[in-house]
């Protein structure tokens, strides 16, 4: 998620609320007795209203068990860069939600810019407040846990589970509930390495909680988790994120993945451990095929020569990079990759093209 927020003036009560939440979260969960968990990680498989979560009626092809349905929660800003990605993501949510095998329920875009934007009638949205001015120190993602805290407190969410998602996610096939009861499902990120960062993490995960190997190598997204569990974790996640950002050593070490580490730590503090699903999503251009996954995450640029050779780190003769569209959405009917480019990249571009061709007013200013 990118783009600067338009925070506006923050009232004194909001500052007081955040301070109180952070204090009690620190006290309660750093003094909570250890649960004695030391379980090996499991790898499995290869227009809305402000103030409410909106649920769609599912089609007849949806999964039979309504208790397995999950609510899709998408955190976003009002920046144009975030908006066009959210529109594509929401389009594919609607396309996949009623197909056989899907456990998808309702959808909410949690807009943490503090004010409505031009997509309120197109995408079910709840507006929440950003952090106080300057609190994120230029790291916009720090608003995500605070946004979830507010949403969980204010929204009526019918489903028992929640999928935490991001604007640059595309559903490539119907997504079942990958969680198993109290064990959430998460995607393992190769660059989240708790055991290699034990010295830093001990500032936030005390020794009495056990080994740092209890911290899963994950971020908060994509994660399918019980709503009741997330309600407990969210405040701690926010608190740990803020504390990490304030600590210069931690901020320098974790950089743009700081908030991901904070979610992993917060979950471990609550004794919540995740099933690690490599098949949850892929990330082109490094992952080459999309047939054994549920989500394409287009966070990396895809640069190729006209011979189909990857030129990562160098602008290719053919490219698709979301950062090319910071000020305007990608045009309809993007050119397809040249022969030899991996299927995952071809599928991504085709899905972007299908969405933009079918979203009314795609290139209109919002």
Key traits:
366 residues; alpha/beta; 8-stranded mixed sheet; 3-stranded mixed sheet; 13 strands; globular; disordered N terminus; Hydroxyproline O-arabinosyltransferase-like domain-containing protein; membrane; transferase
Describe this structure in words.
The protein has eight helices and 13 strands. It has an eight-stranded mixed sheet, with helices on both faces. It has a three-stranded mixed sheet with strand order 6-11-10. Strands 12-13 form a two-stranded antiparallel ribbon. The longest helix is centred in the middle third of the chain and has 20 residues, at 227-246. Mean pLDDT is 87; it is low at 1-10 and 12-62. It starts with 11 loop residues before the first helix and ends in an 8-residue tail after the last helix. Helix content is 29%, strand content 13%. Strand 2, helix 2 and strand 3 form a beta-alpha-beta unit. With 366 residues, it is of the alpha/beta class. Helix 1 (12-30) packs across helix 5 (227-246). The chain has helices at residues 12-30, 80-96, 143-154, 198-201, 227-246, 248-254, 258-269, 343-358; strands spanning 42-43, 70-76, 104-111, 125-127, 161-165, 169-171, 185-186, 223-226, 275-276, 281-282, 295-297, 302-304, 318-320. This is Hydroxyproline O-arabinosyltransferase-like domain-containing protein. It is a single-pass membrane protein. Keywords: Glycosyltransferase, Membrane, Transferase, Transmembrane, Transmembrane helix. The chain crosses the membrane at residues 12-30. Its main location: membrane.
């Amino acid at each position: 998620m990118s783009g600067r927020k338009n925070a506006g003036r923050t009232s004194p009560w909001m500052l007081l609320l955040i301070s109180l939440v952070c204090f009690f979260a620190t006290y309660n969960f750093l003094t909570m007795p250890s649960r004695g968990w030391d379980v090996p990680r499991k790898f499995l498989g290869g227009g809305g209203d402000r103030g409410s979560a909106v649920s769609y009626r599912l089609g007849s092809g949806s999964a039979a068990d309504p208790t397995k349905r999950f609510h899709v929660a998408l955190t976003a800003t009002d920046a144009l860069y975030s908006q066009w990605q959210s529109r594509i993501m929401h389009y594919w949510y609607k396309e996949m939600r009623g197909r056989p095998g899907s456990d998808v329920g309702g959808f909410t875009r949690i807009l943490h810019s503090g004010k409505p934007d031009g997509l309120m009638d197109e995408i079910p949205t709840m507006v929440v407040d950003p952090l106080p001015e300057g609190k994120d120190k230029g790291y916009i993602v720090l608003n995500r846990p605070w946004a979830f805290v507010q949403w969980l407190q204010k929204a009526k969410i019918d489903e028992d589970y929640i999928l935490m998602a991001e604007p640059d996610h595309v559903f490539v096939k119907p997504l079942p509930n990958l969680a198993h009861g109290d064990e959430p499902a998460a995607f393992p990120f190769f660059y989240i390495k708790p055991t290699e960062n034990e010295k830093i993490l001990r500032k936030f995960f005390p020794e009495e909680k056990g080994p740092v190997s209890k911290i899963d190598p994950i971020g908060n997204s994509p994660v399918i988790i019980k709503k009741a569990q997330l309600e407990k974790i969210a405040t701690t996640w926010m608190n740990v994120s803020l504390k990490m950002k304030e600590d210069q050593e931690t901020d320098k070490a974790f950089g743009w993945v700081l908030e991901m580490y904070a979610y992993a730590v917060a979950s471990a503090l609550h004794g919540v451990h995740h099933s690690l699903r490599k098949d949850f999503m892929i990330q082109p251009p490094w992952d080459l095929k999309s047939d054994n996954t549920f989500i394409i995450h287009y966070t990396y640029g895809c640069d190729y020569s006209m011979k189909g050779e990857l030129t990562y780190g160098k602008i290719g003769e053919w490219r698709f990079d979301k950062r090319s569209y910071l000020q305007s959405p990608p045009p309809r009917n993007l050119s397809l990759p040249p022969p030899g480019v991996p299927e995952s990249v071809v599928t991504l571009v085709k899905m972007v093209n299908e969405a933009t061709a079918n979203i009314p007013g795609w290139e209109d200013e919002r």
